[in-house]
């Protein structure tokens, strides 16, 4: 494999999951072998399930497995007995799959190929192209709670896309109107995207790092924004990173220790 990509944290168990660039498999307290390189990862902690997309042999697969790390004894003779392929997309249709996010409360998942975002039920049924972008999709994030706009409660999927002038971050409403908004634009590549539900804040990295060894993480607060996520209060956080550029990010709430 290559450097670690796309880290996800289970808030119930505290377990971390990640995959390697170009690598086959998902890391955690144990290792989940995959057929091809993983391109996106999402967790459903309430169901103890892992969802991911992978690409192999000209086909993109959307798959789900049960995290039985803490089940004893482990059935090491049959590690794939709980695994299920939920959807397949031929690369000839729209290229490899690039990301996946979940909305367990509505029973939905969204996964992306080169310029399409698909909407499906969590069991993989009803998969349809829901949005089409004009530029390649690099990664996805999701706000399942959304914000009130008029009489609508609007949840959104965020997509980082590449265009000729640089890179853009757009949000897509999957209730009510189904419209989209431009969130941010950069002349540098977006590395990863994550949404902080508690702070109502969207974070995204802009890569590559600067010549002095720093990289930028941008955050967009939703306070006071008419439609939210519209870059009205963007902040820039600068991090020294002498070890090389980061490749994945997750946002969550950490409880301070008590003494």
Describe this structure in words.
With 259 residues, the chain is mainly β. 2% of the residues lie in helices and 53% in strands. It has one helix at residues 91-94; strands at 4-9, 16-20, 26-27, 31-32, 38-44, 49-56, 59-66, 84-90, 99-103, 108-112, 116-121, 128-132, 137-149, 152-163, 166-173, 180-186, 189-196, 201-207, 214-221, 234-240. The longest helix has 4 residues, at 91-94. The protein is globular and about 45 Å long. It starts with a strand and ends in a 19-residue tail after the last strand. The relative contact order is 0.11.
Strand % is over 45%
| Largest sheet data | 4 strands, antiparallel
Number of DSSP helical runs: 1
Work out the number of β strands. Answer: 20
Shape: globular
Through-space gap between termini = 41 Å
| Assembly context of the chains | single chain
User: What's the helical proportion of residues?
Assistant: under 10%
- Radius of gyration from the CA trace? 18 Å
Spatial ordering of strands, largest sheet:
5-6-7-8
């Amino acid at each position: 494999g290559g450097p670690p990509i796309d880290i996800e944290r289970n808030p119930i168990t505290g377990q971390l999951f990640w995959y390697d660039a170009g690598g086959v498999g998902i890391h955690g307290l144990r290792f989940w072998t995959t057929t091809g390189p993983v391109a996106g990862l999402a967790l459903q902690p309430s169901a103890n399930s892992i969802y991911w997309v992978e690409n192999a042999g000209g086909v993109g697969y959307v798959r789900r497995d049960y995290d039985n790390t803490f089940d004893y004894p482990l059935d090491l003779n049959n590690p794939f007995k709980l695994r299920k392929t939920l959807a397949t997309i031929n690369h000839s249709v729209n290229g490899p799959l690039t990301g996946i996010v979940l909305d367990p409360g509505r029973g939905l998942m969204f996964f992306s190929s080169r310029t399409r975002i698909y909407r499906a039920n969590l069991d993989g049924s009803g998969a349809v192209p829901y949005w089409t972008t004009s530029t390649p999709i690099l990664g996805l994030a999701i706000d399942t709670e959304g914000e009130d706009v008029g009489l609508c409660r609007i949840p959104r999927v965020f997509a980082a896309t590449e265009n000729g002038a640089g890179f853009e971050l757009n949000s897509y409403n999957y209730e009510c109107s189904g419209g989209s908004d431009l969130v941010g634009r950069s002349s540098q590549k977006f590395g990863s995207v994550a949404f902080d539900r508690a702070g109502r804040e969207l974070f995204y990295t802009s890569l590559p790092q600067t010549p002095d060894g720093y990289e930028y993480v941008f955050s967009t607060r939703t306070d006071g924004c008419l439609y939210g996520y519209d870059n009205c209060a963007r902040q820039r956080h600068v991090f020294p990173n002498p070890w090389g550029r980061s490749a994945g990010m997750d946002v969550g709430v950490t409880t301070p220790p008590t003494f």
